[in-house]
Amino acid sequence: MNSYISQLQASIAPLSKQVVNHPVYAAIRDVESLHAFMQYHVFAVWDFMSLLKALQNNLTCTRTPWFPEGNANTRFLINEIVVGEESDVDFFGNRKSHFEMYLDAMQQCGADTSAIEMFTATLQQTGNLEKAFEVARVPEATRQFVRYTFEIINSNQPHVQAAVFTFGREDLIPQMFLSIINGIFQDTPEKISLFKYYLERHIEVDGDHHSLLALEMTAHLCGDDAKRWQQATEAAQKALQMRIALWDGVLAEIEQAIEA
User: Fold this and answer.
1) Tens of pLDDT along 193-228?
2) What angle do CA 182, 29, 200 make, to 5 degrees?
3) For 182, how many CA atoms within 13 A lie in the half-sphere containing its CB?
4) Hey, is 89 helix, strand or coil?
5) 95: three-class secondary structure by DSSP
6) Half-sphere exposure of residue 77, counting CA atoms within 13 Å on the CB side?
7) How far apart are CA 78 and CA 47, in angstroms?
8) What's the CA gap between 14 and 96, in Å, rounded?
9) Threshold 0.70, pTM exceeds
10) What string of DSSP letters covers 148-200?
11) How far apart are CA 3 and CA 6, in angstroms?
């Protein structure tokens, strides 16, 4: 393995462990507590797609007239990931993005989709991220998470974007969480089948094939440039810190609901 990759992985290992072992997973005991989780997490699913498209814009030609841009290997890697994320097969065999699949899962289990729908509609109309936050009354932990994603997007540094995508947004799913979801599924399959499918599909596609492609893409973009690897490491570390803060926000909301 590339020594730079090994060093980066070692540097983020403590933060990755915090994400995997975060107490928010154990707090999800029923469909109601899952609602709170999904209403926060859906924003991460959405801005993941925005980060992905930023990479595609930077690494390929997405305008006309077309000219061959960048390295053919990185073009192939990012385009293959986009196909899988933007037009996968859902539970019913229909082509949908992972974001649309997540919305379907929220609707099936009764989670409130009004905030994410109002947010995306306002952002599409105004192009103003802060305005969309305000109109949709997005929680502060979620705002901070999305702001950092767009800070990375607006950096226009493909190697940094790729590092955050690969190491900071891998969405590590602990086995404990899968066990919890399977337990809820046993009790209420009619409410949780689409979310269970989403998680299984995520592990199959994102956690396996796409993660290997993303790793190769990051290695191509950073090359043997020590400064780029340092920038990539710092960005991935902060991305994981932002994920921990997002989970802290979800946990606080679940605990508040229990106390009420």
Assistant:
1) 999 999 888 877 765 667 778 888 899 999 999 999
2) 30
3) 7
4) strand
5) strand
6) 24
7) 16
8) 35
9) yes
10) HHHHHHHTT-HHHHHHIIIIISS----HHHHHHHHHHHHH-HHHHHHHHHHHH
11) 5
